Amino acid sequence: MKLAAIDIGSNAARLQISTVLHNDDLVSFKRVEYVRFPLRLGHDVFNYGSLTPESEARTTKLMQAYKLLMELHEVEGYMACATSAMRESSNGQEVAKRIEEVTGIKIHIIDGRKEAELINDVVVHALDDRQYLHIDVGGGSTELNVYLNREKINSKSFKIGSVRLLEGKEHKGAWRKIEDWVEDNIDSFQEVTAVGTGGNISKLFNLASKISETETTRSEIERIRDFIAGFSQEDRINKLRLNADRADVIVPAADIYISVMKWAGANKIIVPDLGLKDGIIQQVYAQVKKRK
């Protein structure tokens, strides 16, 4: 059985198709297809407050392409979710409805709490009983979650993200709000380890020296951030081989991860290869299982 997840973010839209594997009572998911396209919807919304006809047309074409891929893979269930840009757009709901009329793909515009919940459902499996601060930086928002003994203690979504910072459209006082929230919710008497999810931290982690297969240090993330910042946009693309839509947002995203880690006193960060799309796949599986 194959299932699919579509994640429409402020920077890019992703399609992941996974096969469901059964090993006795253990269920796992193996990725068989992954496509990412840089729609950059956040540019419209954070500057003008709504999605332009051009962005709507490109999103419609992309959903048509994703639908064809799902049909070729004979996907049995899927879910499409849109996050910060579409939920803040004044015409987000109308655009989603028109895209559904053309493509048949229903786009669920989810709030920050639901977004965090879907990510948390898969991230929790990478944790043990220690204190963790999960940091998920998207194009338009940052979700923070505190875990202790594999239980989520608290969570909060903030209107600050890589594209929003790039456009200079972060909400007033957003940095201070994050700092205050971290100070109020992290137990300073216990060691805290950061957990990072999102495309930018995955790229930073790939370039960094590592403690283990999934862990590195804050100082190493800082080093890589400064290394990338020393290159022009053109050289980041041509010499560092970063995608154009990654090259301009990776430094602002790094600033969020590093700042949050500093405020929390976290010197190490775990970067599991997990994200919103994996949480969506897991929810789709639960829905398909109910129908059978």
From TrEMBL:
Residues 29-282 form the Ppx/GppA phosphatase N-terminal domain. CDD domains: ASKHA_NBD_PPX_GppA. Pfam families: Ppx-GppA (PF02541). One of its GO terms (molecular function) is pyrophosphatase activity. It comes from the Bacteria. PANTHER family: EXOPOLYPHOSPHATASE (PTHR30005), RETROGRADE REGULATION PROTEIN 2 (PTHR30005:SF0). This is Phosphatase. It comes from Spirosoma radiotolerans.
